[in-house]
Write a structure and sequence with these properties.
This protein has about 120 residues and is mostly beta strands. Helix content is about 0%, strand content about 50%. It is built from no helices and 11 strands. The strands form 2 sheets. Strands 2, 4, 5, 6, 9, 10 and 11 form a 7-stranded mixed β-sheet that branches. The chain has a 4-stranded antiparallel β-sheet with strand order 1-3-8-7, with no helix packed on it. The radius of gyration is 13 Å and the shape is globular. The chain starts with a strand and ends with a strand. The model has no long low-confidence stretch (mean pLDDT about 95).
Length: about 120
Amino acid sequence: EVQLVESGGGLVQAGGSLRLSCAASGFTFDGSAIGWFRQAPGKEREGVSCFSSSDGSTDYADSVKGRFTISSDDAKNTVYLQMNSLKPEDTAVYYCAAAVRCEGTPWGHWGQGTQVTVSS
């Protein structure tokens, strides 16, 4: 059974940092893409970042470029999202998901989400 489990969310002041983890079981990252998404109350879900294990490429939403960094630890089958210089508008439930590629293929597996709250 494929499972994705997020952790690392919490409450942080503006300007602070958090590191989210997405631990996968039931499949390996090799040949997969792992994306981070977020959904704030009353807003649509948006893509935040994506890591493609096939070539190690990464992609970021404009709103987080320069502040967030996605990385992976293949030995732990875990993808991380390091979030620095957090802003109140980063407050949302963050989800990780798996697909074949970052674009053009469906996100077939999702985690349960982890809450990130940034206070001003």
